[in-house]
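pinned: reference chain
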Amino acid sequence: MRLVEATLMDLIFIAAHLRPSDREELAATRDVNDYEKLAIDSFQSDYKCIGYDAKGFPALAFGAKALHPGVVGLWGFGTPSYRDSARSVTRHIRDDMIPALLKMGVHRGQCLVHPNNRASQKWLTALGFKPEATLSGFGSRREDMLLYAWVDDATPARH
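pinned: its structure tokens
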């Protein structure tokens, strides 16, 4: 499947057609009905890509946004047809995105996952992420959220 840098229009399309698990997860921290704001927030990320489905429609968006020097917040969301590009996206994140972030000086990437989103937890684990914490009552409706992260252990810590 084809992967390209995200455009605002593609992000709006995906945000307007979220799969149910992404809708539930995002609803814990934002208004998912304001899909234009979700798209604009995603578009402002330092790294942003789109994967397409078999029919050529935008299906999966993912990226990274700087939180502070060396640390990025990773994000991703998709439509019900996200599976068409999931394998290509996984390969891209592992082989291209994480190495690019490391070259940019990133030593940690983290993301929040809803406890019900087992598919994302499994996927993140396969990508080398580890669950670090349960954030009790973090969601707007007091949902717990899971914090997953990868840390570049090869870069020495500064003291």
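why pinned: The chain has five helices and seven strands. The CA atoms of residues 55 and 120 lie 24 Å apart.
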